[in-house]
Write a structure and sequence with these properties.
- With 198 residues, the protein is of the alpha/beta class.
- It folds into two domains: 54 residues, no CATH class; 122 residues, 3-Layer(aba) Sandwich (Rossmann fold).
- It has seven helices and five strands; from the N terminus they run H-H-H-E-H-E-H-E-H-E-H-E.
- It has a five-stranded parallel sheet, with helices on both faces.
- Helix 2 runs antiparallel to helix 3.
- The longest helix is centred in the N-terminal third of the chain and has 22 residues.
- 21% of the residues are buried.
């Protein structure tokens, strides 16, 4: 093997303990090697990948700088509809199968004021908690916007929406809401599940 610069040898002999250490090592190699050296080309490739990983991990840090766990985070959007318990159960099974975090998200639009709706909403919340969901409630007039905001802020990876057998205008408004969510949300897997009692 042909001899390398002593600075280069000292750099590669040190075992990096973190991503910044790896970046420092790769940058030192890059400045030490001559342009014709094949090692410089390979090093450049690794440097690009490591910088991309570093940027991705930076985006996954919370406000206090702690690294968030990279795992599935499933959120079910539910309403006061009694059939939502079927939807919540589906989400719980998904979270369990993926060993992921599980959220049940409700947006209060002011449409569930009746005693009956309040009762079924409370039943749905109790059911969600019983299957391990962290229940989060929000208020707003536009459900799609509130869900997209929740997905962004909580790094949700998969969202489950319920769909009842609606026709005509109700179906149009439902599809419009889904499209609005898709436009405003970050990259996330979306599951649309037929909402029915079994």
């Amino acid at each position: 093997m042909f001899p390398y610069d002593p600075t280069l040898l000292a750099t590669v002999e040190a075992v990096p303990q973190s991503i910044p250490d790896v970046l420092q090592t790769l940058q030192t190699i890059d400045t030490t090697c001559v342009d014709e050296d094949g090692l410089k080309w390979f090093n450049w490739e690794y440097l690009q990948v490591t910088q991309a990983v570093d940027r991705t991990l930076s985006e996954l840090k919370s406000e206090d700088g702690q690294l968030l766990q990279v795992r599935e985070r499933i959120a079910v959007c539910f309403s006061s509809n009694p059939a939502a318990q079927y939807l919540i159960a589906r989400g719980a099974r998904m979270a369990q199968a993926m060993d992921g975090d599980f959220y049940a998200f409700y947006v209060d639009t002011g449409a569930d004021e009746s005693d009956e709706n309040q009762r079924t909403l409370a039943d749905n919340i109790r059911f969600a908690e019983s299957v391990g969901a962290k229940v989060v409630k929000s208020e707003g007039k536009v459900v799609a916007e509130k869900v997209a905001e929740f997905v962004r802020e909580n790094h949700i990876t998969q969202v489950v929406f319920g769909r009842s057998a609606t026709k005509g205008w109700k179906r149009y408004f439902y599809l419009s809401a889904i499209h609005k969510f898709l436009r405003e949300s970050p990259s996330v897997d979306v599951h649309i599940v037929t909402q029915e009692m079994r």
